[in-house]
Amino acid sequence: MQGGSSGIGYGLKYQARCISDVKADTDHTSFLTGTLSLKEENEVHLLRLSSGGSELVCEGLFSHPNEIWDLASCPFDQRIFSTVFSTGESFGAAIWQIPEPYGQSNSSTLDCVASLDAHVGKINCVLWCPSGKSDKLISMDEQNLVLWSLDSSKKSAEVVSKESAGMRHSLSGGAWNPHDVNSVAATSESSIQFWDLRTMKNVNSIERAHVRNVDYNTKREHILVTADDESGIHIWDLRKAKAPVQELPGHTHWTWAVRCNPEYEELILSVGTDSAVNLWFASASSEKQASERSAEASRQRVNPLLNSYTDYEDSVYGLAWSSREPWFFASLSYDGRVLN
Amino acid sequence: MATEAAPMDEKAKRMRDLLSSFYTPDPSISTPTSSISTSFDNINGPSFDADQYMDLMIKKSNLDVLLQRHVQMAAEIKNLDTDLQMLVYENYNKFISATDTIKRMKSNIFGMEGNMDQLLHKIMSVQSRSDGVNTSLFEKREHIEKLHRTRNLLRKVQFIYDLPARLQKCIKSEAYGDAVRFYTGAMPILKVYGDTSFKDCRRASEEAIETIIKNLQTKLFSDSESIQARAEAAVLLKQLDVPVDSLKDKLLEKLEQSLDGLQINPDEASKLAEHNVSSKDEESNNQGPAKIHEDAVRGFSEAMRAYREIFPDSEERLFKLARALTTTHFENMELYIRKRVSAADFLGIFREYSAFPPADVLLLSNSLRIIWEDVVLMDEVLPEAALSDLSAEAAQVTLKQFVARTFSHLQQDISDTLLKFDINQKEVVDGEVLKVVLEASGKAEFRQLLDENTGIFVKMNDLLIGWIQKGFQDFFSEKIHAGLILVLAQLSVVIEQKVIPRIAEEITASFSGGNSQAFIPGELCRVFHAASEKLLQHYIDTRTQKISNVLRKRFKTPNWVKHKEPREVHMYVDMLLQQLEEVGKEVKQILPQGTFRKHKRSDSNGSNTTTSSRSTTLHSDKMARSNSQRARSQLFETHLAKLFKQKVEIFTKVEFTQESVVTTTVKLCLKSLQEYVRLQTFNRSGFQQIQLDIQFLKAPLKETVEDEAAIDFLLDEVIVAASERCLDATPLEPPILDKLIQAKLAKSKEHNNNNKTTVSS
User: Could you tell me which residues belong to the region Disordered (chain B) (predicted)?
Assistant: First the structure.
């Protein structure tokens, strides 16, 4: 999606919420999506951008037993990914492996590597350790944070540690700090909490109500971006957690998800329930340019919104930058349309 | 000469050289030309060698050429000879005429000397005669001169003797100017001879002059005299060597005294005005003190003018006085403002307060206007005193204070009302107060301030607005109440739409020149517009946030999968409606009505209505049939319906109308509702509950909202979302739905016999 407003589309059969970039696939720009349908057979789609960059091809279609609420691709093995699924009444999380010669057969079954079954409540998300080779996983439900160690060869996952955040904070999502593998940010009802994985203790928090989504800036340490229901997008400096460094107006309704570009630190992408995908330019907040900031800030105020893609007809929930080619991103709307 | 052929060449050449040296006066011209053209074949050159030339010719050319050359040369020689002859004849002629002239001159000179002698003799005799006449007339002339001198002296003596009488006469006729002139004329004589022969005379005249001086002084001091007369008197006194400075000092002292009297006036005026305000008929009485004050100031400025004319060298002192006057004016103003505001502080009841700001502002602006007029008057008199600058400065300070005070006061006031609101929960009262405050503080204050289109306001308008904006910001950070935000939004709209054009108008009216760069109405308009939009957005945000919290609680708490059979419409619907009603009330009181009227949509058959009716029919169709149908086909159907429905614009730009704000709020709420529904999984009863709630919501929402199609769309979306997230989406039968809604309505009627409109679903 290089500047143009009309991207490459791909339609899923059913409703869907989540899309993930396949980081481990170094040869292609690939994305994984999972559908969300209560009554139908759910599917996981492996999408690949054709070499010309003009087409989004379905490379694999795998059936998944339950509706998928969250999906994350393993950073070191392109065939492994995790899902959070729900049977309607109960939630589960599992790690799956795409069967070897994939792409040939339609609706082939997935191999279940491990089931993350230490949870009781509603599971929100599964996070992979961003450092690459590490086989650590974190899964979150509303009250608990569980650190897993995955052994893919033995097809098992063990609980390393588990910590309850307490009844008061219902966790809703999170992000693993790419600069510090021991730190995880989790969003809860009234704040963003930072957990130290070594001690499994809550070390820090930013008081902020109703944060939907959080993402670390992979290029700059200490910078965190959050998306709120009502008040748009906030950029935080973790060392100065009292007030946001910058605010962006966000969307006309809830801002559902926000992602920083893996290569260009200024670019932020957000999706919202107003069926729009907005691309923001937020160049401020580098500490060494403190003097420049005022001048720059005034310029930003002119137009922090670089582009708004409004091709969707329903709320947009899923969003992922391509890590291989940082100028591509995929977004997913509720009615099952993927756009690049 | 031409007869000899052989030496002819040389001869001719010599002749020509001679001739040329004779005729060309400057040989330096001829020599260079000849030297330049030195060559052997140049016959005319001085260095021409005939033999060489001949040799060259013979060597170079054949016989024909030589012959030809010979003929040519012979012709040339002949020509030259005739030229020479002509010249000789002409010279001879000239010589003959010259000798003739000399001969004639010689004959004319004879007899001249005798005539000259005769002339000299005659002149000598004329001179001796005139001398004789002169000596014979000398004696008589001397006598006449003497007589004349005596006469002059006698006249002077006569004048001095007459002086006292004349002075008396002048005193009688008040012709002091003449008197002083006479007296100063006679002064030197009186001084020299005063002790001897003119003693009496001098004494008498001095007496007269003293009376004159006295008269002049009284004249100078009397205010009833015209300025010119007084100025004249001062000048005359000066001529009489009376010490004018002491007089001046006295006069200025007097002026100061009168100034003190003047300063008391404003105090009295303010007191009077205050009194009048509390007795609530300020207008007529306000004029009284103002008029008195104006007269006083006018008198003062007149006096100033007079003094300025009388004593042109005393300006500095006058400046000081004028400055003192203005500063005391402003001090008074400050005092007065403080008093006013604190007085208003004591009156806690906001209704009464609402009457105050206008009066307050009226007074302020009145007094400011008065002061400005005074200053203009004084400025005319003393243009150098830079009074206008001074007063502008002072007025700026005063206004700043005033605005600050009013703001703090307003803030306090509003917080008071909010406190009351919290205690009483009386929404209506609160709303009214909001409105009153808005009108009082906003319209009255700004308009009245700006109505005063004297130059002083124009100068500081932008400053004023700056302060006000700052005030807003301070305000904003401290208080977060939705209604208040709305008030502020509306206020800034008022400023943007009405005040700024007015200011601009006034500026163009008062400065037709290029003096208005400091004030850019477009820029200010933009600022205020942005501010108002932001505020409005913020208002909607806070409102929807509140509602969204209600919804969140509703959807997070129960286990939807194990929901029980719906018995009645859920509580949260009531809360939702209540919140919306609140918004509607606030909005109605503050914002203007839009152009869209509600009754319009009932008879309109535009595209909006058709879409909405289509969607409803589809919906009801679906409802009717879905009893027997399976969920899958239903889902398919909704998708199909969606395909055919045009995409409804949910998120439109908010305008400053009641309907727009309410609609936006409702839309955002419904969208949130939809999102919350999508996050849950329902069983059949849960779905039915949602369906029931939505069905109930439909009618009242439509009542309040302008964009029916969008609301329909969103409500449908909620149900669709619920059915999608439902394990067993079997809708309730319409009769049951109806019954439950009616029951709810009846209950709500029972609870509060409010004017909730009856619903027929």
Answer: 273-292, 594-629
β-partners of residue A146 are A139, A162
Angle ∠(B690,B693,B695) on CA atoms, nearest 5: 105
Order of strands, edge to edge, in the sheet holding A316-321? A9-11, A337-339, A329-333, A316-321
> Residue A90 has what DSSP assignment?
-
* A vs B: CB pairs below 8 A: 42
> Mean pLDDT over residues B642-664, rounded?
62
Q: Is any Cβ of chain B less than 8 angstroms from the Cβ of A230?
A: yes
State how many domains chain A has. 1
Q: Is pLDDT above 90 for B197?
A: no
Query: Mean pLDDT score of chain A, rounded to an integer?
Result: 72
Region of residue B395 (left: phi > 0; alpha: psi -120 to 50; beta: else):
alpha
Instruction: Return the CATH number at A327.
Output: 2.130.10.10
For residues B200-218, average pLDDT: 77
H, E, C per residue of B246-307: HHHHHHHHHHHHHHHHHHHHHHHHHHHHHHHHHCCCHHHHHHHHHHHHHHHHHHHHHHHHHH
For A86, the closest chain B residue by CA position comes to B681
Q: Rounded to the nearest 5°, which phi and psi values hold at B497?
A: -85, -35
What are the structure tokens assigned to B477, written together? 């950070």
A315 contacts in B (CB within 8 Å)?
675, 678
Closest CA to A112 of A99, A126, A125, A95: A95
The residues with which B92 forms a beta bridge, in sequence order, are none
The predicted pLDDT at position B74 comes to 93
Secondary structure element (H or E) that encloses residue A48, with its range: strand A42-49
**Residues in Cβ contact with B390 at an 8 Å cutoff, skipping those fewer than 6 apart:** B323, B326, B327
Helix (H, G, I), strand (E, B) or coil at A333: strand
On the question of pLDDT at B86 being above 90, the answer is yes
- Residues of chain B with a CB closer than 8 angstroms to some CB in chain A: 541, 544-545, 548, 556, 561, 631-632, 647, 650-651, 668, 671-672, 675, 678, 681, 724-727
ipTM > 0.95, yes or no: no
pLDDT band at B40 (very low <50, low <70, confident <90, very high): low
C-alpha span between A173 and A163 (Å, rounded): 15
Which one has a higher pLDDT value, A132 or A85? A85
Tokens of B752: 């509060």
Strands A305-309 and A9-11: unpaired
| Smallest Cα distance from B413 to chain A, Å | 30
Contacts of A15 in chain B (CB under 8 A): 724
Cβ contact A109:A99 at 8 Å: yes
Is A15 within 8 Å of B671 when comparing Cβ atoms? no
Q: Has residue A3 been placed in a domain?
A: no
> CA–CA distance from A274 to each of A188, A253, B337, B439 (Å)?
23, 5, 52, 37
Instruction: Choose among A58, A48, A49, A55: nearest CA to A105.
Output: A58
Residue B88: pLDDT band with limits 50, 70, 90: very high
Torsion of CA B662, B663, B665, B667, to 10 degrees: 160
Q: pLDDT > 90: what percent of chain B?
A: 4
Residue A135 CA to residue A147 CA, distance in Å, equals: 11
**What range defines the domain where residue A197 resides?**
165-282+302-316+323-339
Per-residue confidence (pLDDT) for residue B78, from 0 to 100: 94
Question: Average pLDDT, whole number, for chain B?
Answer: 63
Of the pLDDT bands very low, low, confident and very high (cuts 50, 70, 90), residue B131 is: confident
